[in-house]
UniProtKB/TrEMBL annotation:
InterPro entries: Ala_racemase_N (IPR001608), PLP-binding_barrel (IPR029066), PyrdxlP_homeostasis (IPR011078). NCBIfam families: YggS family pyridoxal phosphate-dependent enzyme (TIGR00044). PANTHER family: PROLINE SYNTHETASE CO-TRANSCRIBED BACTERIAL HOMOLOG PROTEIN (PTHR10146), PYRIDOXAL PHOSPHATE HOMEOSTASIS PROTEIN (PTHR10146:SF14). Keywords: Pyridoxal phosphate. Belongs to the pyridoxal phosphate-binding protein YggS/PROSC family. The keyword Flavoprotein does not apply. It comes from Pseudomonas pohangensis. The keyword Manganese does not apply. This is Pyridoxal phosphate homeostasis protein.
Length: 235
């Protein structure tokens, strides 16, 4: 077995264990493999283990890998910060965007979604950890933003996403993820998605209702570099 296959088996066992411990149905928990900075060959290896959903943070890098992997039926999720001049390419190349945090971006994605493609699935990113993180809307802005996005014709609002401040304290992990679930439920909209949990805290996320856990290093190993230095200057 390749390392990636072994890693995927371990991640699946962790998800299974967490689902069992919290009485959740495994079918409700999607494994999103976060493949940023990983070569197309690593994605191909993960796909051969049955993974279909891949998350990318950098547009240019993602589009290049999508072209290399166009023989595979993969579903691509964008999970990185969004600049408004990148929305057209996002609307063209992805099935999901998890990191929408303002109306202007949502309006552009809806307007630029190519005719003939299904609506773009959207998660609203919420800043649930306060001042540490710059991405995500404030919880107070969420109801108005969600209502407005629901009216956009070419988007389908699916739920909320968060990247809580990393902590080894499992009680704090649970509290942060529970907060996102409560926020989602408080919107009283038909939202089926909670995008939360990464390699180090997936158990807490599954217990608190995650529908997508976003797993990078536990599948692909440590990333060699943190971000392409050209990010933000590409056409
Ligand atoms: C990189 C990244 C992940 C994966 O993180 P790991 O700790 O490597 O599992 C998940 N979500 C987002 C938004 C990321 O940028």
């Amino acid at each position: 077995m390749s390392t990636i296959a072994e890693n995927i088996a371990k991640v699946r066992a962790r998800i299974r264990g967490a689902a069992q411990a919290s009485g959740r149905d495994l079918a409700e928990i999607g494994l999103l493999a976060v493949s940023k900075t990983q070569p197309a060959s690593a994605i191909r290896a993960a796909a051969s283990c049955g993974l279909r959903d891949f998350g990318e943070n950098y547009l240019q890098e993602a589009v290049e890998k999508q072209a290399e992997l166009s023989d595979l039926a993969l579903t691509w999720h964008f999970i990185g910060p969004i600049q408004s001049n990148k929305t057209r390419a996002l609307a063209e190349h992805f099935a999901w965007v998890h990191s929408v945090d303002r109306l202007k971006i949502a309006e552009r994605l809806s307007a630029q979604r190519p005719p003939g493609l299904p609506p773009l699935n959207i998660c609203l990113q919420v800043n649930i950890s306060g001042e540490d993180s710059k991405s995500g809307c404030n919880p107070e802005e969420l109801p108005a933003l969600a209502q407005a996005i629901c009216k956009l014709p070419n988007l389908r609002l699916r739920g909320l996403m968060a990247i809580p401040a990393a902590t080894p304290d499992t009680a704090l992990q649970h509290a942060a993820f529970a907060r996102l679930r409560v926020l989602r439920d408080s919107l009283q909209l038909p939202l089926d998605s909670l995008s939360m949990g990464m390699s180090d805290d997936l158990e807490a996320a599954v217990a608190e209702g995650a529908s997508w856990i976003r797993i990078g290093s536990a599948i692909f190993g440590a990333r060699n570099y943190s971000a392409p230095s050209t990010q933000g200057t590409l056409p």
